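Hi R.,

Here's the chain you asked about this morning:
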Amino acid sequence: MESAELQITVVTPSGSLELSIGNEPLWIGRNPECAVFLPSNVVSRRHVSLSRQGGDLVVADCSHNGSLVDGSLLRQAARVVRAQTVPIRVGPFDLQLIRKSPPQGPVAVPIPSIAPVASPEVVQGASPPVDAEAPPLLRRRIHRSLLDHLDLPKLGRARINVDEMRPKVIEALGMILQSMAA
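And here is the predicted structure, written out as tokens:
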């Protein structure tokens, strides 16, 4: 049975905070009313929100500058975080999010489709049929979001392993499409 709240500890430069994430998101930002107050002009008033999706922790960046979540840039997007401890950098502040209970494993998240998948070959890597392509502006938006989620420039072309990247790309695309449908 799913718990009504997700228990986390946020470790900040000034100490730790024990927080419970219920139905409403918790905010990290420059606004003194945020659950985690970070006094800096490079931190947005409401920079990052922490919420739960089932038993999973969802970190959403709502700033213009972005945040580093587990070493990857997150900018005006959300990411499901399943690790027990997650480093986050918000402006000049290095934070740690520590879950009180272990992640509950993968949760099926419905992903809205842009166009119907015509055949199993499309899923396995073949080119999509022409009539299933998204409009160019939407493709560019998805591409940009995917680059932000995966932080590919940090890896460099020579260090990208296709088999290791495939699940990361699929997860990132799911989150991107979910945020676009919301």
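One quick note: Residues 106-132 have pLDDT under 50 and may be disordered.

Cheers,
M.
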